[in-house]
Specification:
alpha+beta, Thiol Ester Dehydrase, Chain A, Acyl-[acyl-carrier-protein] thioesterase, fatty acid metabolism, FATA/B, lipid metabolism
């Protein structure tokens, strides 16, 4: 397992003084990026060979959000590949080794010359070592798009939401979905299915469906294509604010 340690910064917390959901996602994806950089197959290397690992889907289960100032350890490992996909787990633990969050994820290897997915070869995953055992949790995969939903306010993609791939950052889709649905409390489980990358200036149209503590938000572009589908389950003692619909 690859691991790095950190301390929750004030700038990463919300009004409750705890790490935000977006902050949690950033820690997990940063961990995989740090591993790639340390293994010599980071962003610059991938640019040189015209490849990119793109997140296809992930499922995150959160036991507790750490508070400002807490020391945490974030870990990741790959557990296999098949066809165009590679599979990776993540964990976050507190200073005492207690599990704060865990995640399952599915990635695909993109050929930047053709713009098409490429079969994952042995040399693509060799730097990450021997695959480890998969976490005993539900796998990341497809998020079902509800047949009926309420339309939310359109969102125009701004520069601060774009990453080095010139697409909307993975965490930003979740932030857009939470704002659109008016979710004001802590999310216990998150499942995101990334369909089509949105870029600067695109307009995303949220479709919002709720059932109890569960909320599904589908983000369409102006061509009615699904860019991302996000399913969230709130913790039992949290509420949904009055969002605009």
């Amino acid at each position: 397992m690859y691991q790095f340690e950190s301390r929750i910064r004030y700038s990463e917390t919300g009004e409750d003084g705890c790490l935000t959901l977006t902050g949690m996602i950033n820690y997990l994806q940063d961990c995989s990026i740090f591993q790639s950089e340390d293994m010599g197959v980071g962003v610059n290397y991938l640019d040189e060979v015209c490849k990119a690992w793109m997140l296809s889907a992930w499922r995150i289960r959160i036991m507790r959000y750490p508070r400002q100032g807490e020391r945490v350890a974030i870990g990741t490992w790959h557990y296999g590949q098949k066809g165009i996909y590679g599979y990776r787990n993540f964990i976050m633990e507190d200073a005492g080794g207690k599990r704060l969050a865990e995640a399952d994820s599915r990635w695909f290897l993109l050929d930047l010359r053709t713009g098409l997915p490429s079969r994952v070869r042995a040399e693509d995953i060799a730097p990450y070592g021997t695959p480890s055992e998969r976490l005993p949790m539900e796998a990341a995969g497809r998020v079902m798009v509800p047949p009926d939903y309420v339309e939310g306010r359109p969102v125009t993609i701004a520069r601060h939401q774009i990453d080095t791939n010139h697409h909307v950052n993975n965490a930003q889709y979740v932030e857009i979905a939470r704002e659109a649905a008016g979710i004001n409390g802590a999310v216990r489980q998150l499942h995101v299915d990334y369909k089509k990358a949105a870029v600067l200036g695109d307009v995303l149209y949220p479709g919002i469906s709720r059932q109890g503590r569960e909320t599904t938000v589908v983000l369409h572009n102006d061509r009615k294509e699904v860019c991302a589908a996000i399913w969230m389950e709130q913790m039992e003692d949290e509420t949904i604010s009055e969002g605009e619909e």
